[in-house]
Amino acid sequence: QVQLVESGGGLVQSGGSLRLSCAAPGSISSIYTMGWYRQAPGKQRELVARIISSASTNYADSVKGRFTISRDNAKNTLYLQMNSLKPEDTAVYYCNILAGAGYYWGQGTQVTVSS
User: Fold this and answer.
1) Rounded to an integer, what distance in angstroms lies between the CA atom of residue 14 and that of residue 22?
2) How many Å from the N-terminal Cα to the C-terminal Cα in the chain?
3) How far is CA 93 from the centre of its chain?
4) CB of 102 within 8 A of CB of 78?
5) What span, in angstroms and rounded, lies between the C-alpha atoms of 16 and 82?
6) What whole-number distance in Å separates Cα of residue 22 and Cα of residue 25?
7) For 36-81, what is each residue's pLDDT tens digit?
8) Which residues have CB under 8 Å from 10's CB, separation 6+?
9) What angle do CA 40, 5, 42 make, to 5 degrees?
10) DSSP letter string over the chain?
11) Is residue 35 within 8 Å of 93, Cβ to Cβ?
12) Residue 34: predicted pLDDT
């Protein structure tokens, strides 16, 4: 089964930065959206940011102005640059692709922001 591979999570102090990466296999075709979700303990998984096939982007209100989503088509890689991190950003972050064949998910990467 095709799986996405995330990296870049870790422990950072409040106000710090992290950059998440998600490597997608080139075998995935007809991609509609690529995005990042997160799930904090005891909470539902929520959308953080996504890129739609037209290259437009959506962000959760809580991360607007702090996070930037981007993609490198040549490397089939999705990024999430996270700046000015807050303790409430602590969660497991998941990469997601919606394509013609369905949804693809990564295994998740832990981001922990200490106060």
Assistant:
1) 23
2) 39
3) 6
4) no
5) 8
6) 10
7) 999 999 999 999 999 997 679 999 999 999 999 999 888 889 999 9
8) 18, 110, 111, 112
9) 10
10) ---BEEE--EEEETT--EEEEEE--TT--SEEEEEEEEE-TTS--EEEEEEETTS-EEE-TTTTTTEEEEEEGGGTEEEEEE-S--GGG-EEEEEEEEETTEEEEB--EEEEEE-
11) no
12) 93
Written as six digits, the tokens of 50 are 């996504």
SS3 for 67-93 is EEEEEEHHHCEEEEEECCCCHHHCEEE
For the CA atoms of 5, 11, 15, 16, the dihedral, rounded to the nearest 10 degrees, stands at: -60
Neighbouring CB atoms inside 10 A of 85's CB total: 22
Return the amino acid letter for 95.
C
Find, among 105, 93, 85, the residue nearest to 9 by Cα.
93
